[in-house]
Task: structure prediction
Amino acid sequence: MFKKILIANRGEIACRVIKTARKMGIQTVAVYSDADANALHVKQADEAVHIGPAPSAQSYLVIDRILEAIRKTGADAVHPGYGFLSENAAFAAALEKAGIAFIGPPVKAIEAMGDKITSKKIAAEAGVSTVPGHMGLIGDAEEAVRIAASIGYPVMIKASAGGGGKGMRIAWNDDEAREGFRSSQNEAKSAFGDDRIFIEKFVTQPRHIEIQVLGDQHGSTLYLGERECSIQRRNQKVIEEAPSPFLDEETRKAMGEQAVALARAVGYFSAGTVEFIVDGERNFYFLEMNTRLQVEHPVTELVTGVDLVEQMIRVAAGERLSFGQKDVALTGWAIESRLYAEDPYRNFLPSIGRLSRYRPPVEGLQDSGAILRNDTGVFEGGEISMYYDPMIAKLCSWAADRITAIDAMRDALDAFEVEGIGHNLPFLSAVMDQQRFRSGQLTTAYIAEEFPDGFSGVKPAPSDGRKLAAIAVLVHQALEERATWISGTLSKRRRMVSRDWVVTLSGGTEMLHEEAITLDASADGAFILFADGERLAAAGGWLPGQSLADFHIGGEAMMVKVDRTGSAIRLRWRGMDVTARVRSPRIAELARLMPVKVPPDTSKMLLCPMPGVITSVTVEAGDRVEAGQTLATVEAMKMENVLKAERQGLVKRVAATPGQSLGVDELILEFE
Result:
């Protein structure tokens, strides 16, 4: 067995590998860039080696620097994680030449499956069902338009060396094919150093379901069930689960056997994933094979009990698999929610900054019988950098059945505290409560269909509004009681606190809910009385300064995030984010007469929607632009974002230039 493993990666996957290596008694070496000098994986590893500047092209992607770190530390094996060099055949070959074990598949398998065009040809020869498309390379945008039209719209434009949703675009017409080709090519060249593009038919009503395969170097290959990865945005997975709520045993077996056939066709060993697109009739088509560990591997581990990282290490060391296909059983249900540093209220644009608060829920066995797991590579006080993937953590829940696992995830998201940056916790919480998700009616268009106008938060239903209003009164009452106790101690006279309040809940400038409430406290406990006569038992242990608290309103347990914002109270629960103002009836009456503050007019400005680097500006002062015309491109967190004109206009001033780094809402263009 290996004595020391170098992890050629960063963040949560580096921490994940360290966890298993430590369990196996193997020492670990971390590598880090300038931006990651204080990162969690650096702190957790036994040794750490600096490999260069923050941009990954100058550090994590430089093979010679990784090899030098190996020489310095005497590591005898390398785990590549996912992304970066994990599917780089030249890297695996360099390790082989140096006599260092690569904890992954053989070089030939990486080469064969790393090229999506070649992989589809091999898959077809191995009897694997494939998506119709053009398997040759495409020279330019006009050729892409001709090919797309011949296949029939919609089509998927994909980078041959792509992965992680980068270099992928869906085109529904010639214009989108032309622009999609250019954007995919630029993004692929930036992310992978390879701008080759191909086109295939886009399957409508598709589900993204993948099969986990595992093989050793002695000819044993098996599959460990499937993962449903249909909830995506920008072709990037957001929520995954195992097993799929859609597959039956017959389809599962057929997909698994085809995945194994493909792995055997290329002499594959180690852990890998064969991805399929599945239509509404359970017809499935091969998409690609990822010759590495997947981001979503924890859900497979939770339902099979197999530590995939451990198996990868043992296979790389030459050991045989200790179990066969007949020993693989799927037990219970697992859900994974990817917590990203992305602002869902701004179309999921990346967010960077310091994690002023990072407190995940307690892992392990829960009172409900569910199990929580949180894979992360960050810590409170750490920085989310603009140079890397915006993932903060992968929160996983396991339970005996799917609904219990979803409910456990919903409660865990309520208890997860993240402050200092924009993040998608509210969105994840909202999905867990959607009936369509809970019933398993999923497609890769789920987010676009359920949130066609973007995510603007969850508006409380009348019953939820009452519960949040009741919580606001309990919080306000605690603050008032504390204030009177302090003032009474100083003045020797303690004023009485009113029991009658009017609570107004708002989201931004929109009033969402208003209630006249009386708090009735007695020896029997506290009760909230509403104007229509409804009476709810209310209890909570919130104390001033506490950011997360348990409340029981009308018999329902609620874990709510509580913040004071001036004289108001901010409450967050299950995707709802409301500002509560608790006033006396007379003050509430007067407040209704106050004018509403109007936000500044930015309709004549193009503002940078995220922190990033301006890679191009396609217009000049004096130019007249049309609706839909490209104005500028911003690159952030390895993704290219094209900014277009919303309507006709005349450019008055260009305030930003290519190569310039901008923050959120900094000016790019101004119109007449």
